[in-house]
Write a structure and sequence with these properties.
By secondary structure, the chain is an all-alpha fold. It has a domain of 64 residues. Helices cover 44% and strands 0% of the residues. The longest helix is centred in the first third of the chain and has 25 residues. The radius of gyration is 23 Å and the shape is elongated. The chain starts with 17 loop residues before the first helix and ends in a 14-residue tail after the last helix.
């Protein structure tokens, strides 16, 4: 069976053990929990939603989607009053 590599054919390529791939995925997910926890808390949402990143393939998009499509109670309204998001006025006069 020439050309199959050391680990044989598989979706992770030759020579890569499935356990290693799972460990790397879990490691990256664990690294993302803390930042998502803080973002959810600052947005006024339940920080336990950050555990969604542990779900393979759907967890990270779901966690980001919750943040993207929720209203942020302590964000834009405060900055908009300072003129950060306010449109620039063109003057309007013949000055």
């Amino acid at each position: 069976m020439a050309g199959e590599g050391m680990g044989g054919p598989g979706p992770m390529g030759p020579g890569m053990a499935p356990g290693f791939s799972i460990a790397v995925t879990l490691g990256f997910s664990l690294l993302l929990i803390y930042p998502f926890w803080r973002i959810y808390r600052r947005a006024g949402l339940n920080p336990w939603f950050s555990l969604l990143v542990l779900l393979p393939y759907v967890g990270l998009p779901a966690a980001a989607g919750i943040l993207a499509f929720q209203s942020w109670p302590n964000g834009e309204s405060r900055r908009a009053g300072k003129g950060v998001f306010a449109p620039k006025s063109s003057g309007g006069g013949s000055g």
